[in-house]
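Quick one - first record:
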Amino acid sequence: MDHPFYEVAATAKDAMDRGGKVYQKYTCSGCGERLMMDEPNVFYKTGRCDKCGTVTNIEEQGCNYMLVFDAEAIAEAKERGDG
């Protein structure tokens, strides 16, 4: 499910600040395929579908993200008191 771009980016930044890796996800406006960007911790305003080639305006359509914390990031967050 996609949510407003800037709200998602702000929430993701908080997770990144705590040591998480964030992978942007969005839905292709052409074929409806659910896509994920390869580059962690970057939010793109457009994306090209691997399946149909449509360029989606992610800034207008919205997006979401997948959050990954590894064991080291979790331990560091606990040491800082924010995990």
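second record:
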Amino acid sequence: MQHVMISVPMRRRYLNKMAYQPVLRLLVLLLSMAAALPAQNHARQSDKLRLGLYAAMPVRWDLDANWSTFERTVLAHAADRIDLIVTPECYLDGYVVEARDWEPQRFAGVAQDVETSPYVKRLRALAAQNKTYIVLGFTERLRGKIYDSAIMVDREGRTAGIYHKTHLQEQDLRFSPGDHLPVFDTEWGKTGVLICADRRWPEPARVARLKGARITLIPSYGMWHIDNEWWMRTRSWENGNFIAFAHPNVAFVTDPEGKVPAKLQTNVPGMLVYDVDLSRLRNTDIDDRRPELYEEIARPK
């Protein structure tokens, strides 16, 4: 019988290899678990947000003209390296729901299906080209209903969320109401979206804040007088977060102290660019609430 001898150096290497195998198996397991985690868990949310609030009066019924003006303005600000751009409410079609020549068939004709809309396709491409998030206000067609909507796409052009306006009055009753107040996950944390009249009630902005919104975006088309500015200052102060208001005539930001650190009022297409410091959020009043006393607020009317 032939005997195989393992020399001392070879034996030592063999034993060392055997000793490392459990460690190697553990390392492979940990790496595979890390790879399975969602991407956002790898990066700490940023406190810095360069905001771009787009202000322009759209042409009613003319989606091509409105898109062209928006795209041209975004490209003109490419060097600003904006993180998030927000348009006014129903900017794409010009908020035709209140047009004097409104007709149901024509209204349905401008409503966009997110899956097939050429404008949503262009939106995705524009966001990816400029590596920016974009929130676009538009009229949406979904499962036989028409909504006043805002879609958020991320830097790759992927859908980050869609919000349907929830509080409808007067001409807005031509829309179907949304039934959720979501917040969207972004690189700078959770972000709320409300649309125009939703801001009149304190509850939607509060719900967004309680769901973690560090900033709430409000695409709007209606009122934009100085009283509205005070309302938005109040919403920011009572919730301790930022609000970004985008309207065809005015764009402004309100901060957790209820101040207006940036504002653009214009009658030509423009972009308010402002660096938001999200580390300035105030949590004291939110933390000191007494929700056990507020049950009447949530009772059905």
